[in-house]
Amino acid sequence: MCGISGWVDYGRDLRRERQTLQAMTDTMACRGPDAEGAWLAPHVAFGHRRLAIIDIEGGRQPMTAGAEGEVVAALTYSGEVYNFRELRAELEQRGHRFRTQSDTEVVLEAYLEWGEDFVSRLNGMYAFAIWDARREELLLVRDRMGIKPLYYYPTPNGVLFGSEPKAILANPLAERVIDADGLREILACVKTPEAAVFRGMYEVRPGQVVKLRREGLSKRRYWRLESREHTDDLQTTIRTVRELLDDIVERQLISDVPLCTLLSGGLDSSAVTALAARALAGKGGVRSFSVDFAGYSENFQADDMRDTPDTPYVRDVVRHVGSDHSDIVLDSADLMDPAVRAAVLRARDLPLGIGDMDTSLYLLFKAIRGHSTVALSGESADEVFGGYRWFHDPQAVNSGTFPWLAMQGQTGLSTRGEFLNEELLRKLDIPAYRADSYQRALAEVPQVPGETGLQKRMREISYLHLTRFVQILLDRKDRMSMAVGLEVRVPFCDHRLVEYVFNAPWSMKTFDGHEKSLLRAATADVLPRSVVERRKVPYPSTQDPAYERALRAEVTRVLDGDSAIGCLVDADRVRTMLDQPLGAVSLQGARTSLEGILQMNAWLGAYDVSLAI
């Protein structure tokens, strides 16, 4: 895993711009703490920061391939290609000779052999740029599910690009401007494809190739979800899911550095941990980590989203699979640490966070990084198999908007921005923005001819999650992990599994009366009964009233001071929120506005943003 940056300009000699390239690349240091590199040619400059995972000595970047002493192509690459060994063997049969054992070189040689269509052969998570010196063309490529990020900023004579917006913003050609649509995107929680919030900046869409020539930019999709009739019966479907998972987990255990799993005690992470333990039996076993809060289990109060604390189920899995386990226990002081909160914002680049759930994830990953460089996660199983509670709530399913926004008061996502003043809220008209985004998303859904009723609707719901909601969570996971130099792999995002389960009928996905029925049935033999029967519970959020008390105090200081956000908020409404009595426990949904005010204020100050609204 790595951080990449680059610049193509057909109107200037970029060999003179090493200092600017260095500034762009330096912003990616957290993503690649092990090494850095640069490659410059007349119209192209590539930067790279490396987190060494495969072929520690041989995989240095940017990597070039040449003929007769001339560079033919150059690559700056982030990610992992899990089928690189098979591709390497095929390329060797076609006459290619390799200098390293890295997947990076396989990607570069695959491009030279098959051209840009080679991307359809890759299985993995990746974001990379290839410069073809023969054609003077740049390719920007992102994996099918968008696990790894990639942004670009067109200029009059070329383009800037990077793993994160901060790499692009380090170039003086990029403006730090947020217009009305950018602010709407921050507040709406709809994750519009290609929208990058900063004016003039774009995100390479999952499964997309962006090509730059002298004539300009072009884009094409090399992968998208397709609908087709599912002909397998239930038992065949369960067996196929398990076979895919066995293969996926085994592939994603390949690493030349210490590896672990993230374990919450839920079905998803427990399945990954159990399958990893089975694959590593006799090879040292698997190490696992979980996050907890001081006093959380003892004082836990069930709410609309969380029935039970994680700890008892984590213990059951650890005993069942024999993992070498560690709990990372945090308290409210950890979550309110100003340096930590600043690091989280810096990792995000935008005020898109979800409060303590971001901060605790960052601290969990930071603690894990002291022991492991790679972690396997259960992320995205809910989107693939239909796990969230709103999948099973008729009111949310039929709400006429994104289901995660229909669960009023439970997630807090629908109330982002309620702290803004009335004039600004009227101007932004977030409900209209959400409605437009929802209709455009629905128009994309691939349908099976003749499909009607619940099956048709649940196909739409699944598509919304696999193309929108999952991007919110994958982005969070990537930013928090790479901020500390930890690579997190997501087995449930393997495109083969996603394609197969997407087309399975909703009746199969709920055949036993529970959510994620196919996943439960496919992995029940490797899990303790308590986990197999456990209802979906989201990532934990602190319930400590001391945390909310500290948030309220900080928001009061912002309102009373000369703050960056002062002209945007409705101070009277916020003070009314602050006057509400504090309960015996503090729930996530009730803190959304407080978190939003603090993060927006910090972001406006730290990023020197100009608002053009």
General description of the model:
- The chain is of the alpha/beta class.
- Helix content is 41%, strand content 18%.
- It is built from 25 helices and 19 strands.
- The strands form 4 sheets. It has a 6-stranded antiparallel sheet.
- α12 packs across α18 (453-482).
- The longest helix is centred in the C-terminal third of the chain and has 30 residues, at 453-482.
- It is globular, with a radius of gyration of 24 Å.
- The two termini are 37 Å apart.
- Keywords: Amino-acid biosynthesis, Asparagine biosynthesis, ATP-binding, Glutamine amidotransferase, Ligase, Nucleotide-binding.
- Belongs to the asparagine synthetase family.
SS strand fraction = 15-25%
Major β-sheet profile: 6 strands, antiparallel
Radius of gyration: 24 Å
Molecular shape: globular
Give the low-confidence spans.
none
Fraction of residues in helix: 40-55%
**SS summary, helix count:** 25
| Average pLDDT reading | 94
Question: Separation of termini?
Answer: 37 Å
Give the strand tally.
19
Strands of the biggest beta sheet: in what spatial order?
A: 2-3-1-9-8-11
Q: How would you briefly describe this protein structure?
A:
With 613 residues, the protein is an alpha/beta fold.
Annotate the secondary structure layout.
Blueprint: E1 2-9, H1 18-26, E2 35-41, E3 44-50, E4 63-67, E5 70-81, H2 84-93, H3 103-114, E6 124-132, E7 137-142, E8 151-155, E9 158-162, H4 165-169, E10 177-179, H5 180-188, E11 202-203, E12 208-213, E13 216-221, H6 234-252, E14 259-262, H7 267-279, E15 287-293, H8 296-299, H9 311-321, E16 324-330, H10 332-336, H11 338-348, H12 356-368, E17 374-376, H13 381-385, H14 394-397, H15 403-406, H16 422-428, H17 430-444, H18 453-482, E18 487-489, H19 495-502, H20 506-509, H21 517-523, H22 529-532, H23 545-560, H24 571-579, H25 592-606, E19 610-612
Parallel strand pairs: 10-19, 14-15, 14-17, 15-16, 17-18
Antiparallel strand pairs: 1-3, 1-9, 2-3, 4-5, 5-6, 6-7, 7-12, 8-9, 8-11, 12-13
Helix pairs in contact: 2-3, 5-17, 6-7, 6-21, 7-9, 12-18, 23-25
